[in-house]
Amino acid sequence: MAILRRIKSRLKDLVTTKKKRARSTRKTKLEMKKEEKLTSTQMEKTEKTIGLQETSVEKTKFYTGEIPKVAPRTMPQELPERYGEDKMVAQTRDPWWIHVYWEIKDSTLQRLKKELKDDFYKAKRILRVYDISNIIFDGTNAHRFFDIHINDYANNWYIDTAGPGRSWCVDWGLLLSDGRFITVVRSNPVFTPLEGPSWITDEEWMVPEEIFARLYGMGFGLGRSSPVGKAWQERIRRELFSGILASPGITSVSSPVKIKERKFWLVVNTELIVYGATEPDATVYVQGRKIQLRPDGTFSLRFALPDGKQVIPVRGVSADKLEERTITPIVTKETK
Fold first, then answer.
1. Is 129 within the bounds of a domain?
2. Cβ-proximal residues to 182 (8 Å cutoff; 6+ apart), any chain
3. Strand runs (DSSP E) across 85-123, as ranges?
4. Which helix (DSSP H) or strand (DSSP E) does residue 141 occupy?
5. How far apart are alpha carbons 269 and 306 in whole angstroms?
6. Does a structural domain hold residue 76?
7. What is the pLDDT of residue 61?
8. Residue 245: what pLDDT?
9. Same structural domain for residues 251 and 316?
């Protein structure tokens, strides 16, 4: 009996041990499966991360930065036909012609209709062209004027002034049946340039005779101490037309060597003309010297123009001594 008990006890122990081993084995397998799942999940995540990184790296090869937002393109629009203001603009085309364009508000025309009544419909549309050269125009002091009849629908006009080198101003207005002219709008002043060289040939010189003689004497090789007066003039004239001054290789007119007379000669000189205008009662100084104005306030001066730099300050002072302006032309000449 004791042996049987031992055998049963031994069997129970074996069964219990097997069960424990089976449980531990089962537990180990479950843990291994969990670990495998975890490992596979981590590997998938890693692969995904690597794939994303590779994709992002691949994308950066062609990345040029953020594309700036561009406002939608708007197509250019035509300029308006009217701006709603009373205005007239004049512009120079050439020495003879100017061009003007204008706009008259509807409200302005309606006001004129109420004020003039029947006279408005009888009135002629006129462009009155004023010659305002060398004056400050106040509407009544123009040198002269002429009228151009235009139609009711015109808004620009080309005007033949027939006056190069003049200043002009244009009025758009109504010429009434009784001869009155009503200015509705006035243009800016414009200047038509000269059609050729300046006609100003005044004989007033700003260089004293002594300096003038020295300048011309230096040009002919007579030195800085050239004599002045009739004797000097006669000497220049005699030597010029005798061919001595035009002969090459001569450094002094007192050379004892006889030179064969030649008819060919060449002399080149230059002059500078300065001209302008101001108020007739103003005072003008050129290089510090007071000059005489013409009755209309214009002036012109001739200067000898040797090689070098010439500075010619022109200062104008109003009659009441309250205003003063200075303009300084600077001219440089070089002879080759």
1. yes
2. 112, 116, 123, 173, 174, 176
3. 87-92, 97-103
4. none
5. 8
6. no
7. 57
8. 44
9. no
Which SS3 state, helix, strand or coil, does residue 328 take? coil
d(CA 242, CA 247): 10
Cα separation, 187 vs 170, in Å, equals 5
* 119/166 same-domain check: yes
Could you tell me the sign of the dihedral formed by the alpha carbons of 281, 284, 290, 293, in that order? negative
One domain, residues 273 and 303: yes
Q: H/E element holding 126?
A: strand 124-131
Predicted local confidence at residue 265, as pLDDT:
75
- Mark whether 305 and 327 lie in a shared domain: yes
Residue with tokens 């250019």: 76
Q: Are residues 263 and 273 in the same domain?
A: no
Tokens 């129970």 label which residue? Answer: 12
Q: Residue 211's pLDDT is what?
A: 58
We report the CATH number of the domain holding residue 294 as 2.60.40.10
Pairing verdict, β 156-160 and 97-103: antiparallel
Q: Do 252 and 284 fall into the same domain? A: no
Work out how many domains the chain is built from and give that number.
3
- Please identify every stretch of the chain with a pLDDT value under 50, giving residue numbers as ranges: 203, 224-228, 243-256
- Predicted confidence at residue 22, as pLDDT, reads 62
Domain that holds residue 223: 217-267
Residue 333 has what pLDDT? 84
- pTM of the entire predicted model: 0.42
- Where b means 16+ CB within 10 Å and e means fewer, 142-162 reads beeeeeeeeeeeeeebebebe
Q: Are residues 260 and 305 in the same domain?
A: no
